[in-house]
Amino acid sequence: MMSNLMIFAQGAKKPTIMVVPSDMYCIKNGYSKVVNNQGENETIPNYKKALQNDPALLTGITAIGQMMADRGFPLKLLEQELKSLEDESAEDAMLTSKEGSDVSESPVDALKKRAKADIILQVTWLVNKQGPKYSLTYNMLGIDAYTNKQISACQGTGAPTFSAELPVLIEESVSNNFEDFAQRLQGHFDEMFQNGREVTLRIKKWDSSDVDLESEFEGIELSDIIEDWMADNTVNGRFNTTDATENMMYFEQVRIPLFNEQGRALDTRRWARGLVNKLKELGIVSKLMVKGLGQATIIIGEK
Fold first, then answer.
1. pLDDT, average across residues 72-82
2. How high is the pLDDT of residue 42?
3. Virtual CA dihedral for 20, 22, 28, 32, nearest 10 degrees?
4. How far apart are CA 297 and CA 47, in angstroms?
5. Contact 184, 152 (CB under 8 A)
6. Pair 215, 276: CB distance under 8 Å
7. What's the start-to-end Cα distance of the chain, in Å?
8. In the prediction, which pLDDT does 96 show?
9. pLDDT tens digits for range 15-57
10. Which of 113, 126, 154, 185 is most buried as measured by Cβ atoms within 10 A of its Cβ?
């Protein structure tokens, strides 16, 4: 009976979706900007400009979002998340950073962190006119917000119709492939529910630190203590130690639970905080930094 209840619970849980215009759509239509990200120029979509200057875009995002909502997927609304982001001064500074200034993460990463959506649904479309009839060529791409990996996609051109209303064109064009697309999104989330969310973790040390990863505590090297903690705090002990030296460790394909023991949603920062606390028990001061949703870095020696 308990097994059946667990299977039901997994099937009933839906991933949180945020629908955004694709990078290609934004750049092609002039809704982008260039920021200096740690010394490199990066062209990123300017969602705020797109929503303010393209009424059809908001209509299209709403239509696709409604199709997801009709299938039970919880939605994070792009427009509302942008407004909330602007209310937070630190993230607002990143969104409005001047050309040439350094940012620790891209504004898109800041938006993902604020929204904490499981899946980013990137969409783009082109309305075609053939005499009195209209059709819509579309592309939808489902991306894991934590790893930026593609998990589902569909594209095509709908049958010509006399209607020029964008929501109607989207519904008629996308509907044929939408169920399979949504099932792949759900399948990816179900796999995460069972096997954990994939993230990465880096361990580094400050030059000023007297402790490195070969330092011993009660006869055990710190690197081994960290790997033991990883084994105890990942789903089924699933992680790969990609690299390890006396000064750094790099873990990939780290599978963390979606929820903690209290049933609260668990993100990369909260999960990595557990290792920071473990190091604190050993008398080691450390600093935790998170980039985007799925990358954590712990630097030992000082904050």
1. 91
2. 82
3. 60
4. 28
5. yes
6. no
7. 48
8. 44
9. 999 999 999 999 999 999 887 766 778 888 999 999 999 989 9
10. 185
